[in-house]
Each structure stands twice: as C-alpha cells, then as structure tokens.
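stuck on this fold:
=====
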Amino acid sequence: MTFMGRVMLSPVLFSTQRQRLPALLTHEMSHAHLRTWISELSALRLPQWFKEGLAVMVSGGGGAEGVSEVEA
C-alpha cells in the first residue's frame, strides 16, 4: 500500500513470497508516482478501475495474480 507518499510492503514479500516482490513493488511505486504528478484531490477523482488497472499493467500483472483477464 501507499500511505502519505511512502510505499509499505508486507514482510512476507521478503521471505516466503519473495518471487512476488518485483511485481508488487512496481505496482505500488506506480501508485506513488501517479500521486507525485497530480494533486490528492485529482487522485481521488480518478476511477478506482483506472488507478488499479494502470498499476497492474505497468507491473506486468502484479497485484492481480489470482485474477484472469476475463474475470477482471
């Protein structure tokens, strides 16, 4: 998750789920990067599907590993 401009990751990503780390880090960094370019109010106005879809696309599927394209 991103909170107050900082990316916070689960500790399990550094041990048992290490293979997910690059994709999830990229996913969360895309959220943080977006927020540096637009105001907080503008970020809130963006549709959730756009913010999450952009992050998943940029990360190559990070954060949506359990969902197929059809389900999404």
The first strand starts at residue 2 and ends at 3. Residues 47 and 53 are 10 Å apart (CA to CA).
